[in-house]
Input
Amino acid sequence: MPHRPFIVGNWKMNGTRAQLAEARAIERGAARHAGVRVGVAPPFTLIAAMAEDGQAIVVGGQDCHAEERGAFTGDVSAVMLKDAGAGFTIVGHSERRAMHGESDAAVKAKAETALAAGLEVIVCVGETEAQRDSGQAEAVVSAQLDGSMPRDESAAGRVTVAYEPVWAIGTGRVPSAADVAAMHAAIRGRLGVIYGEDGAAVRILYGGSVNAGNAAELLAVTDVGGALVGGASLTADSFLSIVSAAGTSEE
Output
């Protein structure tokens, strides 16, 4: 792979200051796996505290607004994330697309704003169960990439794609290694169309019910450059077992 594996924990709407102990344990564990890049996207309220605690993990946001500032009650800008100590932000997560009606164009606008603020960006794409069952999975994901990926001149070096089959998120269902390989190959091909030769260097993560039991198999798949982890990232023990599997997959 062109990069060391990137394992990212998305805490979603979980975590108060009481969970900072878990974050510190993740930090200590990540320091023992120098061959793996480890990131955690906690709630906005914990970004500053987590960013101040150490350097072995990169802290990120779970979303950002497309505007730098303004009358957008309840929203957080990329500049604010950067100021709080974030190094990256996730955009286009399937829960944002489904629950907040975010379009590909909205996701692209957020990604471009985040890049301009000096953040790295993880752009999420993925198909629903109905789309997969009807044979449209690759077409849907390709269209999402076309509409969501930022086109800034330096974008390819600062963006990561996270493939999340929507039907696998939080369900315990996981696509086969062959299905993951096929989709990641399709994504790699589309990134080549979007970014030309630079598309070969864009990291592609897999996300969707990743846990200690399946991480090693998933991370060994060609073109899987890491994982976007949900529930299994909330405790240090379960998350670090995935980090450890990433390190093993590179040996």
